[in-house]
Design goal:
By secondary structure, the chain is of the alpha+beta class. The protein folds into three domains: 56 residues; 51 residues, SH3 type barrels; 53 residues, no CATH class. It is 51% helix and 16% strand. The chain contains four helices and five strands, in the order ααβββββαα. It has a five-stranded antiparallel beta sheet, with no helix packed on it. A hairpin with a 7-residue loop joins strand 3 and strand 4. Helix 1 runs antiparallel to helix 2. The termini are far apart.
């Protein structure tokens, strides 16, 4: 397709069609190249993310986890050797006889091991102020939902105890 466009563009310029069609063919070629570059960038990002998740899952495998290998062998991990990047899988039962197989970690197809997420829960000052305001608004809404008698009882109990009534318990 690209070659036919280039061939038609070269024919049109040699036949004297002018520089307008030549300009259009260059725009088309640049647009196609840009689309290909964007596709490759997005594809590589998603592949890197998938590889990172897979590596975290493989690193989370510990003794006691259930594992299914790429060959279809199911069992329980008995030992993990991080230096050799291998693990020992126990298959079978007491009645049928247990067997132990050593696999490379890359042979894991499925596992019940979950990677521990270490998300940062740091809020900026603006975010923490917004969270405090939202909490105050929720408290005000819950106070509005309380019956007036309940609010006055709470306020009188606080005044008897020597406490200052809070905004939540004050009557409007």
């Amino acid at each position: 397709m690209l070659f036919s466009l280039l061939a038609s563009a070269s024919e049109s310029t040699s036949s004297g069609a002018g520089s307008g069609s030549n300009w259009m063919s260059w725009v088309l070629i640049i647009a196609l190249a840009a689309i290909l570059i964007v596709f490759f960038v997005l594809s590589s990002r998603s592949n890197k993310k998938r590889q990172k998740e897979t590596q975290e899952m493989l690193d989370a495998v510990q003794p006691g986890n259930k594992v299914k290998t790429i060959g279809g062998i199911c069992g329980i991990v008995v030992a993990v050797d991080p230096e050799d990047n291998t693990f020992v899988l126990e298959t079978g039962t007491e009645a049928t006889g247990k067997s132990y197989l050593k696999f490379d970690k890359q042979a894991i197809y499925q596992t019940d091991a979950t990677a521990k997420k270490t998300e940062k829960a740091h809020l900026s000052e603006d975010d923490s102020d917004k969270a405090e305001k939202a909490d105050a608004a929720e408290q005000a809404e819950s106070a509005a939902d309380k019956p007036a008698a309940e609010i006055s009882e709470t306020a009188s109990a606080q005044s008897e105890a020597g406490e200052e009534p809070t905004a939540e318990n004050k009557e409007d």
